Amino acid sequence: MAFENLTERMQGVFKNLRGKRKLTEEDIAQVTKEIRLALLEADVALPVVKSFVRKVRERATGFEVSEALDPAQQVLKIVDDELTEILGGGESQLQKSPKIPTVIMMVGLQGAGKTTFAGKLANRLKTEENARPLMIAADVYRPAAIEQLKVIGNQVGVPVFDKGTDVSPVEIVKEGLELAKQNKNDYVLIDTAGRLEIDDKLMNELEQIKEVANPTEILLVVDAMTGQVAAQVAKTFNERLDITGVIVTKLDGDTRGGAALSIREITGKPIKFAGVGEKITDLEVFYPERMSSRILGMGDMLTLIEKAQKDFDEERSIELAQKMKENTFDFNDFIEQLDQVTNMGPLDEILKMIPGMSSMPGISDVKVDPKEIARKRAMVLSMTPEERENPDILSPSRRRRIAAGSGNTFIEVNKLIKQFNQSKKMMQGIMNGDMNSLLGQMGG
Ligand code: GDP
Fold this sequence. Notes:
- Its main location: cytoplasm.
- The protein is α/β, with parallel strands linked by helices.
- The protein folds into three domains: 4-86, Up-down Bundle (Four Helix Bundle (Hemerythrin (Met), subunit A)), CATH 1.20.120.140; 102-285, P-loop containing nucleotide triphosphate hydrolases (Rossmann fold, 3-Layer(aba) Sandwich), CATH 3.40.50.300; 301-440, 434 Repressor (Amino-terminal Domain), CATH 1.10.260.30.
- 58% of the residues lie in helices and 9% in strands.
- An eight-stranded mixed β-sheet has the order 3-2-4-1-5-6-7-8, with helices on both faces.
- The chain is elongated and about 95 Å long.
- The protein starts with a helix and ends with a helix.
- The structure holds guanosine-5'-diphosphate (GDP).
- Guanosine-5'-diphosphate is lined by residues 108, 110-116, 148, 194, 221, 249-250, 252-253, 275-278, 282.
C-alpha cells in the first residue's frame, strides 16, 4: 500500500512525543528532523520537503499550549493541516464546459496509465452521470494502444473513434470531435500518445491537439511509483500545456507516495483522481484530507480529536477523571457522562474513528441506543440523592423501589449497577495507568 513507510515513520515521530506535557525546542528540532527524513524517504521533492518542514516548525514553535490537546496531538494536528494543504486543500472537481461536449485530454508518459484512466473515467461518467462519452484514440505511435482503448471501450460500453495509425493525431482529433458533435456526445475523452521520456516532438504534437480540441480539462496522468520523476514530468507538462489537473495512478502499488505530495506544490495544479488498481472501477476522487489522515495512519483520529475538543467540557472532564481516579465517581457523575457521550454522537461512529477499531469484528454491533440511555437515566433519576452519591447502599429493596419508580424491572436495575461498578473499575485502571490512552491506540 502506498505511503506505508511514510506512515510508519510519522507514527514513530508522534510516539516519541507521547506523554509530554510541554514541547521544548529540542523536541521540535527532533520532530522536524524526523519529518524531513520521512518525506525524503518517501521520495518527496526537496523544495517541497523544505517548505513543509519550515511551516511545521514555525507553527509548532508558535502554538499556544491548549488545555484540550497534549503536544503530541497538537503537532499531529499541525502536520495533518500542512499535509492536507500540500495535497491541495480541498477536493477538486472535474470542470464542465457550458456547451457540450466537454473535451478532456489525457496526457502523460507511456505506461503511466493514460489509456486505463480514460476507460475508468468514461465508465465513471457513464455510471454516475448517465453521460454519453466518446473516446478518441489519438495514440498512433504505439499500435497496441488503439486496440487497448477499443477493448476498454467495449468493456465499459463507450464508443471509441479511431483512424488507425496512418492518420495524424491532430486530424484524428478533428474528425473525432466532428463526430461527437453530430452524435451529441456530452464528453469527449482524448487518449494521446506518450513517450518513454519527454521530448519536443511529443510536446509540439500535444500543443497542436490542444489548439484544435480546445479542451476544458488537460489531465496529466502520472505514475505514483515514479516519485520525484513524476513531479519533474508534471512540471514540464505544465509549463508547455498549462494542464488543469493531475491523475496519480498506481497508488495501490508498493509506492512511497512522494509524487502525490510533490505535484501540487510544484505545479500548483490539483490532483483530481487517484488510480488504485487495474480494474475499471479502481478510481477514486482524490480527497487531500483523507489522504493526509491515511498517511498519518490515523483513521479519522483527527476528526475525533476535533470532536472531543469541541464537545467536551474540558474542566469538567478533568474533574470527572480525577473522581474516577479517587474512586469517588458516583451516579451523578455517571449521568453527566452519559450526557456528554450523547452529545458527541453515536458511540459506534466514534469508536470507528479510532485507528484499528473499524476493522475490529463486532464493532458494527456496538450501537448506543438513545432509548437505552434514556432508560438508564430514568433509573438513576429514581435514586435518592443519597443513593446516587453512595451506590453501596443500594440494597435489594432499594433496587426494587427504583425499578418500580422508573418503570423498569429489578433485573435491569441490577444490570445497571453492575455495569456502573464494572466501568468504574475499568476507568480507574485506565486513569491510574497511561492517561494518554487516545494516542496510545495509534500504532501501538
Ligand atoms: P498508458 O501507456 O499511459 O496508456 O498506460 P496504460 O493505461 O496502458 O497502463 C500501463 C499499465 O499500468 C497497465 O498494465 C495498467 O493495467 C496499469 N495501471 C494503470 N493504472 C493503474 C493503477 O491505478 N493501479 C495499478 N496497479 N495498475 C495500473
